């Protein structure tokens, strides 16, 4: 078999290579990554790593020698600029070319930034995607400094939690009606808001940024949409990501919100796959894009399986987690289009779960410090079991009863 070239040395790119080797697939393989470090997991970057409680060594998927030992060539600090589908080769930023028989795009996504017209180009304005970003932010996280976080999604909330832990003053603004508006129900947002407020974060919803102002090129204040101004020492922008699909677009692959793939992670070119954050995949008759470790790994493994001669389609079973303070938020399922929620208190103080339904059908659960609800809900989703409402509604009932 000819060479597999994987563009992107992140969660999905690594998972694909590792799975193929686990399946005893021995084809030549090259992973090309634009970062200077060996593949590592991102979730701790906004959690324990940012807190200074986890070394980079513990973030890497495998030690450096795993790659040569397994015949996986790793080209770091290397950026693929062009795909030539006719000649079946990629061109890198230094002009070098590499031929492929099979190509996998695992390019991830890029944080949205603020335009320069509102001060997005000032020093002291950060986004959060890779180790470099986290290292820069760690240098800014000093007690007493004033941090403005723009965006009340997971990244913003996790950064707020770390910053409060380290003794910073934190204001978080969210343009929408409430935090977590895109990803979670009001009940989950209410619980998370209360936790952040109890830890001293100032959360201002329905509040957008008018502009950032600077002094000597460095951000010093933020004018908000309600006319108020706050002094800031630095800013984290957490307003979502866009898929890295330009390479695919430039070589004529079908692209929507991400690179369009089928249930085997194949693009419109049979020798090119796309996996992870950059891919737009079919799901229950719709096309969706998922931004999670679960999706990156499972989709990569489905791609590996078909490359190695199997044919098990990827049927996404989404799950996700977020750590904030001593709170673990766990999510199973995908709540898109929910029309009903059901809140159940958990056994521990402050713990609860939110059960999502669409047209009467159970589709997802959020669990806040309630591992039992998470595990039960996840099992039910996987087995296609509908929760018994009477059991759900009874806080004293054992959730295990839902599984029978
Ligand atoms: P990535 O891991 O981003 O890897 C893509 C790689 O490709 C990058 O290294 C990029 O530099 C490289 N690349 C891009 N273009 C090129 C090119 N042309 N040439 C060469 N290299 C290129 N998910 C969860 O499930 N739970 C969490 O708690 C969670 N927390 C997160 C916290 C943070 C701070 C971040 C940033 C993400 C978090 N995620 C979390 C999301 C999860 O990390 C991503 O969904 C996952 O990393 C996606 O994997 P990927 O391989 O698609 O992309």
Please provide a written account of the structure:
- This protein is α/β, with parallel strands linked by helices.
- Helices cover 23% and strands 30% of the residues.
- It has ten helices and 27 strands.
- It has helices at residues 11-22, 48-51, 66-69, 131-140, 154-165, 186-198, 246-250, 293-307, 371-383, 389-393, and strands spanning 4-7, 29-32, 72-75, 80-84, 89-92, 97-99, 102-105, 109-111, 125-126, 146-150, 169-173, 202-204, 209-215, 218-224, 229-231, 234-237, 241-243, 255-256, 258-260, 272-274, 279-283, 286-288, 319-324, 327-333, 340-345, 352-358, 361-368.
- The protein has a five-stranded parallel β-sheet with strand order 3-2-1-7-20. Strands 9-16-10-11-12 form a five-stranded parallel β-sheet. A five-stranded antiparallel β-sheet has the order 23-24-27-26-25, with helices on both faces.
- Strand 10 (146-150), helix 5 (154-165) and strand 11 form a beta-alpha-beta unit.
- The protein is globular, with a radius of gyration of 22 Å.
- The model has no long low-confidence stretch (mean pLDDT 97).
- Flavin-adenine dinucleotide binds at residues 7-13, 32-35, 42-43, 45-46, 79-80, 106-108, 128-129, 155, 244, 247, 276-278, 291-294, 296, 320-322.
- Flavin-adenine dinucleotide is lined by residues 7-13, 32-35, 42-43, 45-46, 79-80, 106-108, 128-129, 155, 244, 247, 276-278, 291-294, 296, 320-322.
């Amino acid at each position: 078999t000819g060479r597999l070239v994987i563009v992107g040395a992140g969660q999905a790119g690594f998972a694909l290579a590792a799975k193929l080797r686990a399946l005893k697939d021995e084809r030549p393989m090259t992973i090309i990554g634009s970062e200077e470090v060996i593949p590592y997991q991102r979730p701790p970057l906004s959690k324990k790593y940012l807190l200074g409680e986890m070394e980079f060594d513990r973030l890497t998927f495998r030690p450096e020698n795993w790659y040569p030992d397994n015949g996986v060539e790793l080209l770091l600090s290397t950026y693929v600029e062009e795909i030539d589908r006719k000649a079946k080769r990629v061109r890198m930023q230094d002009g070098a070319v590499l031929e492929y028989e099979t190509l996998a795009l695992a390019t991830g996504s890029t944080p949205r930034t603020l335009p320069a017209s509102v001060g997005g180009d000032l020093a002291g304005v950060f986004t959060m995607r890779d180790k470099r970003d986290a290292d820069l932010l760690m240098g800014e996280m000093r007690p007493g400094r004033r941090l403005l976080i723009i965006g009340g999604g997971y990244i913003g909330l996790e950064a707020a939690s770390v910053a409060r832990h380290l003794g910073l003053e934190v204001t978080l603004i969210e343009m929408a009606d409430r935090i977590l508006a895109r990803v979670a129900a009001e009940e989950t947002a209410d619980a998370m808001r209360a936790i952040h407020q109890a830890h001293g974060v100032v959360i201002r919803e329905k509040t957008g940024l008018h502009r950032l102002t600077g002094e000597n090129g460095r951000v010093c204040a933020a004018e908000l949409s309600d006319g108020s101004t706050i002094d800031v020492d630095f800013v984290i922008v957490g307003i979502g990501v866009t898929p890295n699909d330009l390479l695919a677009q430039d070589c004529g692959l079908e692209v929507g919100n991400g690179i369009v793939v089928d249930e085997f992670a194949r693009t419109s070119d049979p020798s090119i796959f796309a996996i992870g954050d950059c891919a737009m995949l079919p799901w229950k008759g719709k096309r969706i894009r998922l931004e999670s470790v679960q999706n990156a790994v499972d989709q990569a493994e489905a791609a590996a399986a078909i490359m190695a001669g199997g044919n098990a389609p990827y049927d996404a079973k989404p799950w996700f987690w977020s750590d904030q303070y001593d709170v673990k938020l766990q999510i199973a399922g995908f709540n898109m289009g929910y029309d009903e929620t059901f809140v159940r208190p958990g056994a521990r103080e402050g713990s609860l779960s939110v059960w999502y339904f669409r047209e009467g059908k159970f589709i997802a659960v959020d669990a806040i410090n309630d591992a039992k609800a998470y595990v039960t809900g996840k099992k039910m989703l996987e087995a296609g079991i509908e929760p018994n409402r009477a059991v759900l509604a009874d806080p004293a009932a054992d959730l295990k009863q839902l599984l029978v």
